[in-house]
Amino acid sequence: MLSKKQYITEIWEGIRTGISEQYAKKRLSEYKEDLQKLKNHNIRPSRVVGTGYKNARKVAFEWLNEQIEKYKEAIQTKGHSIELNHRNYEHYKCTQKA
């Protein structure tokens, strides 16, 4: 059975299911692009966060900035900061005991 570190490394390399390096870099790029489009008024806040918000523009900026920070951290930690990757490891451990 793999250790958590080994398992998450395999996720990061795209060998196992989870948030991989390729996916994290793609999402980070997309969120940065959307942030720039929002700043330039090229997209509506509802495209980012949906409808029904009083301060949709502010909410959209906050959400995009949170996502950018989340994926920057994921890249710095090579996927170890991503909760989904940890949950996938816990599932893996359960399936190995059976």
Structure description:
The protein is mainly alpha-helical and 98 residues long. The protein is built from 5 helices and no strands. Helix 2 runs antiparallel to helix 4. The longest helix is centred in the C-terminal third of the chain and has 21 residues. The two termini are 12 Å apart. The mean pLDDT is 96.
Beginning-to-end CA distance, first to last residue: 12 Å
Helix content: over 70%
Low-pLDDT parts are none
Overall pLDDT level: 96
Percent strand: under 5%
Oligomer: single chain
N-to-C SSE string, H for helix and E for strand: HHHHH
Domain module tally = 1
List the SSEs and their pairings.
Elements: H1 4-12, H2 21-39, H3 45-49, H4 56-76, H5 83-97
Helix pairs in contact: 2-4
Provide a compact summary of the structure.
The chain is mostly helical and 98 residues long.
Keywords:
single chain, 98 residues, mainly alpha, 70% helix, 0% strand
